[in-house]
Design a protein that fits this description.
Layout lengths: L1 E2 L6 E4 L10 E7 L1 H6 L3 E7 L5 H6 L6 H39 L2 H4 L3 E2 L4 E2 L2 H32 L2 H14 L4 H28 L18 H25 L3 H9 L4 H30 L2 H6 L18 H8 L7 H37 L1
Antiparallel strand pairs: 1-2, 2-3, 3-4, 5-6
Length: 370
């Protein structure tokens, strides 16, 4: 049998007709020039036909045992996770029962914390935890947005990768290093060049001034909030950068093509397209701020007093109180009060995550309705 491919070469199969083809044969490739001289180039042992269908039938069917084992392990992992979560909640509640029975809900809004007299209240740690977290978010969210905007829209190509790596490295610095740097380096500079001018500028105002009164000593709630902001910026900025990069290029180029500025593209195109991911990144940073211990312990002041609401004053947080007192707490009400602080922190974190989840669900429903 002779066949002529599009290239003009002649392909022949030696000694076989089309009906006599076997699984393997010999292929002779003859070019027009070589055909004139009688020379042939042979490619031998080239398979012409695939394996006979009988081989496929002989293959064993996959055993269902693998699927059964995999499904069982997946269910076991889910059950273990739920059991761990339930065990933590139950253990915190049981350990907190003495203070729950003695103080009740008054434990939440009582500012007294006096272990010798067995009087405990969680208002000071709760206020310090919420205040430092809010300060951290107020500072970190706009800074993170600016970093993500620069990396995705404005940065030159040669700077984008090194700057992104440098920002991600900030997340790898241990929190105790942040705390030591904040106490020894940042706090004195912060008191002299920021708290003192800010107190002079805003301390005399009617309502807002109460937040900026007192001696600018550096260590306090405001300093702890700034250190927390520095710590959570890498997390929020990295998430924002990643979600900004998934915005379709066609949408942004179309907006630029009709004359939109970079700010208009980010505000009207990128943010609406990525708002779910942005909210998730902000909630990730908030969760990180609520649970931070060592850095806050170094710079918040660790004082269980609430004489005023000034952000310059030393304070305490739930995590700092647990870190400072748990090892030396006497059995009884003191230990129970600390365990109840842990339970309160768990509830606060659960509420924050639940609110963020509800916000995301509402955003998804509103987008689906459109």
């Amino acid at each position: 049998m002779m066949c002529r491919p599009p290239s003009g070469s002649v392909v022949s199969i030696d000694g076989r007709k089309s009906g006599d083809l076997q699984p393997h044969g010999r292929i002779n490739v003859v070019s027009p020039v070589l055909a004139a001289t009688g020379t042939q180039v042979t490619m031998s042992d080239v398979p012409l036909v695939s394996n006979p269908p009988g081989n496929a039938a002989q293959q064993k069917a996959p055993s269902p045992a693998g699927d059964i084992i995999f499904g069982g392990l997946a269910r076991l992992a889910a059950i273990v996770t739920l059991l761990l979560l339930g065990g933590i909640i139950v253990s915190l509640i049981i350990a907190s029962l003495p203070t729950i029975q003695k103080f009740g809900l008054a434990f939440l809004w009582t500012a007294d914390w006096d272990p010798p007299s067995q009087q405990f209240g969680a208002l000071v740690p709760i206020y310090g935890t919420i205040a430092t977290s809010i300060i951290a978010l107020v500072i970190a969210v706009p800074v993170s947005f600016g970093i993500a905007l620069f990396l995705t829209e404005l940065s030159p190509a040669w700077l984008r990768r090194p700057l992104g790596i440098a920002i991600e490295l900030l997340a790898a610095i241990p929190s105790i290093v942040y705390g030591m740097w904040g106490l020894l380096v940042f706090a004195p500079i912060f008191a002299q060049w920021f708290e003192k001018p800010l107190g002079s500028l805003l301390g005399g105002m009617p309502i807002v001034g109460a937040l900026f009164q007192g001696a600018p000593i550096g260590i306090g709630i405001l300093c702890a909030g700034v250190i927390l902001a520095i710590m959570i910026i890498p997390y929020i900025a990295s998430v924002m950068r990643d979600v900004f990069e998934v915005t379709p290029v066609l949408l942004k180029e179309s907006a630029y093509g009709i004359g939109c500025t970079t700010w208009e593209v980010m505000w009207k195109i990128v943010l609406p397209f990525t708002k779910t991911g942005v909210i998730g990144g902000v909630m990730l940073g908030l969760g990180r701020a609520l649970g931070e211990t060592m850095a806050v312990t170094f710079v918040i002041g660790n004082t269980n007093l609430l004489d005023n609401v000034s952000l310059f004053s030393p304070g305490n947080s739930i995590t700092s109180a647990l870190a400072n007192e748990f090892a030396e707490a006497s059995p009884g009400l003191h230990t129970a009060a600390l365990m109840e602080l842990g339970l309160i922190l768990f509830v606060i974190t659960f509420i924050v995550l639940s609110i963020s989840k509800l916000m995301l669900l509402r955003l998804e429903k509103s987008e689906g309705a459109r």
